[in-house]
Structure formats: C-alpha cells, structure tokens
Amino acid sequence: MNNLTKKQKKMLRRIIVSAVLLVLVKVLCATSILPEHGLLTALCFLAPYAVIGWDVLYKAVRNICNGQVFDENFLMALATVGAFATAEYAEAVFVMLFYQVGELFQDYAVGKSRQSIAALMDIRPDTANLEGENGEIEEVDPEDVPVGAVIVVKPGERVPLDGEVIEGTSALDTAALTGESVPRDVVPGDAVISGCVNQSGVLRVKVTKPCEESTVSKILDLVENASEKKASSENFITRFARYYTPCVVLAATALFLLPTIALALIPAASQPGFLVGTGWTDWLHRALIFLVISCPCALVISVPLSFFGGIGGASKCGILVKGSNYLEALARTETVIFDKTGTLTKGTFSVTAVHPEEGFTQEQVLEYAALAEHWSDHPISLSLKAACKAEPDAARVSDVEEIAGHGVCAKVDGKTVCVGNSRLMERQNVNWLPCELPGTIVHVTVDGFYAGHIVISDLPKEDAKAAIADLKASGVKKTVMLTGDAEAVAKNVAAELGVDEYHAELLPADKVEWTEKLLSAKTAGAKVAFVGDGINDAPVLSRVDIGIAMGALGSDAAIEAADIVLMDDKPSKIATAMRISRKTLRIVNQNIWFALGVKFAVLVLGAFGVATMWEAVFADVGVAFIAILNATRCLRVDEFRK
C-alpha cells in the first residue's frame, strides 16, 4: 500500500468495496433470499457495478461526445451494459471488476517504470552554494549563478553546474551520468560536470557554463524529448489501434445481427447446425465476449512502455538515446563509421618512444626537449613536459626562440638545444635519422650535434580494440575509420584496432563524401552509424542514419547533431547500446505476437461460443498485464553494464 499513489489507493478501495458487495449479493442469491432474476436482483448487482464502473461509463460517454468513440472504455461499457440487458448481472460486474484490477496493475507497472527513470534522472540539484566576494556562502538557484562565479560543493552534494576545480581534491561519483561505478578523482585544474556526486573533500569550482547549457540540463532535455521521436513499431501500433477497434466493433455487431436475422427468417427445420438450439440472447452474449476480448490496451500500452524502458535502461549505462526510433534503428546497424582522434584514440599526445644517439641517454634527450619547450603550451610541448621524470627548472633555460612551423631553440645549461621537426634540422644543417614508428617525430640537437628523436603519438583508448571486436561479434559487417591524420598514422591505428577500412588525410567535406558512398552501398533495411566527437564531425553525424557522439569530452555541436550520446566517451558502449536495442525490440515483438496470438485464438473461440467471459477477461486484462510485466524487463540492463 505504501508504494501506491493516492489515485491507486482510491482505486484499490473501490475494487475491495465492489468485490465485497458482489460476494454479498451472490450469497443472497445462492440462499434464495434474492431471486435469480428480477428487478430487485438487478438493482442489487447494480450497486457493486456502479462502485467499480462509473468512471468507465463516464469516460465512454465523454469520449463519444468528443468524437472519440472506439476505445477500451466504449468496448467495456458496451460489453457490460449488454450483459446487464441479457440478465447476466454477475458477469457484467465480474468483467468490470477484473478490468479495473488489470488497469490498476497496468497503472502500477507504468508508474514503477516512470519512477525508475525519474530517479535515474533526478540529477539536477535545486540549489548551488554561491561564494561571495568576502567568502560568505549563499544558497541560490543554479539558474542564477553567472559564468565565472565560484561555487562550493560539499561532500555528499551533487555538482550543480559545469566548471573547473580551483581548490580542493575529491572523488566524484559519475554513475548517474556515465554508468561507471568507479569514482573519478579530481584535483585543481580538472573540469567537473554537473550531476556528479562529490564523495569526499570540499571543492571550490569556477563555473564555465550557464545552467541551461550545463551537462545535466542537456541530459534531462534529451530524455524528456525522447518520447516525441517514435519508433516504427509504435507508429504501427497507433495506426493499428485506430482501425482495429472499429473493425472489431463492426465484427461483433455482425456476429449478433446476422445469426439473429437468420433465426428470424429461416424456419427451425431448415436452420444450419450452428444456429440450432440458440437464441438471439446467445448471439448477443457471444458478441459481448467478442468485444471484451478485442480491447487493444495490451499493445497500446506495452509497446511504448518497452521503448521507454529501453531508453531508461540505456541511460543507466551512460547512453542517452534521443528517441525510440534511433533505438530501433540501432538494432539494424550493419556499418559503423568512426572518427579517429578523440573517438578511437584518446585525443591527447603522449611520448611513445625515445631514440637517443650515441653519447646521450633517453632521460637526457627527453629532459633537454622538455626544458627547451618549457614555456610553450603547444600539445606536443605539454606531452614532452609530462613525460619528463625530472621537474624542469625554468632557471636553467634562457634565450628561447620559437620558430614558427619548425620548432624551438633555447639555451639549456649554457648549451644550444633545438627541438623540432625535420625542417628545423635542415635549417640547422644537421643530419637527422628517419623513424619507422608512426606518430609525430620530434628531433633534438645539442650544440649542433644530433642527440636523437622522440616519437609522440595519440594513443588508442583502452577499450577501442575490444569495442571493434565486440561490434563484429554483435553482427556489424563493416567498420570504417575516417580521419584527417596522416596516412601512416591512420594505417597503424586501423591495423592495431582491427578496423576493416580506413581513409586518411580527409577534410570535413571529404568525410561527408565518403559517408555518402557508404550510405549508397548499404543493403536494403540496413543502417549506417557514425561515431565522432569533434565539431567537424557534426555534418556527418547529421547525415547518417544514426549519429553517435562522445558526450563527456565531445563538442556541443557534435552532441547536438547526434542521435545517441555516450556520456563516458567509451567506444565499447556502442555494442552495449546495440545489445540494449536488440533486447528492447525482442520484447516489443514478443508483446505484439503474444497479444495478437492470444486475442485471435480467443476471438475465434468466442465467435463459436466456446470461450466464456472468463477467457475474455484473460484475453484482455491478463494479456495486457503479462505484456506490461514483460515490457518492464527493458529497464533491467545490469548484464550490459561494465
């Protein structure tokens, strides 16, 4: 009872009262206190019927007045009122009672699903701790916090806005956003996104985005609008119900009228076998059973609920799907196109090899390079400084000269150190050695002598190779990598990760052109997905059947253009999304075939007078309840979470 809403508790009380009254009237009839038929008996049965069914009758009349005739309220009202007209009082109450029990269970199941997603999406804090000029803390609405302001996030609180840590260290629980259970450590200088839970230390965060552009606001907007983009299965069920209900009403009418007319016109001796021994009341009863069976609520409720659950289940894994149509299309994907940098690779440069010449050690070459590049913020310079074990002392560096397009020359410990590409070596008249390893080659000279070279590469993500293998195991026939990087680098990455096909040195327009070729080559019914993260990927993300963006580090333009967003930037989540998609479609198809199969079988039995009103109630309420319970399985995605 505690888990029920106020409306559900009220309905439960009505069901109990109606059931008690029905049992009481049945006892009075069984003890002959009440006659089996008659006006008084009808009035007694009318009491439990009114308690349980008044709202159904009211909705049926209201909808008829509004031009919406054929719905489940009309079918139930027609069936039960007809049962009363044929003196089947107890059956009329039983049908309405079990219909309302089924509606209560359906409402409860739908409510639980919505609560699961609401709890999942309850990630936007109501307040933010704004720090004033004098250090005082004021609780304000996150929408009132300007960019550049400093907020304080205490242990146990959610980060209300996107920003950068300026003071404090802590561990952030990102499970609600990324589906990852392992906390993420943050220190001053790290970016934090809204919706994460601060687990330990106090953080002072400088706000970098307004509330309406924060990560949590975008997530909520994506989930809230997902229901607007329906899958073809949902559209089919909507169209099906629009024509199905009038057809079954006409069929029920024909089931009553045709035999009744035949009984009136054909002499008893000449009547066919199926009419012998029947009267018009028998055929009316069969028609009423036919109406009860035909209610389409099992399909109308369970199919959208399945997709709703699938989207919610994907969100638990850190995968945001913008609509059930994209979830459905993902299951039919046969070609996946990848951007390289930031998608399959980390998007950050790292030193992968140091090749010193005779007279120098690896540590010396790396230290000279890091010191010469000490004042530069270029990504290559940052990677050199990050790889150097010794802390560079700026006092050892002087006379720094940056040569655009070539590199840097500086005095280090009184020695002239030059760090740069092959053009810088040629400018210095130094013989340099080529390197067979892919990546950016940084050459180092000391006092005019070639000291060696350093290889800097954008390393593949830890799960990139497994992601490609998982996609192929999931039925993806072709994986393609499109990149603007050099041919040698692209070839090495494709070979290392197991990508089927790659195209390098592409401009954004070239990526679109290659995507068009892949789209034109796909088989009928198959889908093509593109996975990217950069702003230059937005045109391709908009062009393909399914655009997938890396959400944690991806650009706003890519996320806006994409249909699916991976919140933790892990390419392995694509296969997870596909498994969730296929599970959802399996459940949708199970519900459709189960509901149609049972209804068709019982409809045939009802037409021949074999099925009773009890079978009719099961074909309506029971089937709907089973289908909805099956639909809620879409929310259970623990087997997909890694």
Protein described:
With 642 residues, the protein is of the alpha+beta class. Among the domains are: 77 residues, Calcium-transporting ATPase, cytoplasmic transduction domain A, CATH 2.70.150.10; 115 residues, Calcium-transporting ATPase, cytoplasmic domain N (3-Layer(aba) Sandwich), CATH 3.40.1110. Helices cover 49% and strands 18% of the residues. The protein is built from 20 helices and 22 strands. The strands form 4 sheets. Strands 10-22-21-20-11-18-19 form a 7-stranded mixed beta sheet, with helices on both faces. Strands 2-1-3-9-4-7 form a 6-stranded antiparallel beta sheet, with no helix packed on it. Strands 12-17-16-15-14-13 form a 6-stranded antiparallel beta sheet. A hairpin with a 5-residue loop joins strand 1 and strand 2. Helix 7 runs antiparallel to helix 9, helix 8 packs parallel to helix 20 and helix 10 crosses helix 19. It is elongated, with a radius of gyration of 35 Å. The mean pLDDT is 80.
* Average pLDDT figure: 80
Radius of gyration using CA atoms only: 35 Å
CATH-derived architecture of the domain at 346-460:
3-Layer(aba) Sandwich
Number of strands: 22
Under the CATH scheme, which class of the domain at 346-460?
Answer: Alpha Beta
Class inferred from helices and paired strands = alpha+beta
How much beta, percentage-wise? 15-25%
Helix content class: 40-55%
Straight-line N-to-C gap: 35 Å
Tell me, briefly, the overall form. Answer: elongated
Side by side, the strands of the main sheet go 10-22-21-20-11-18-19
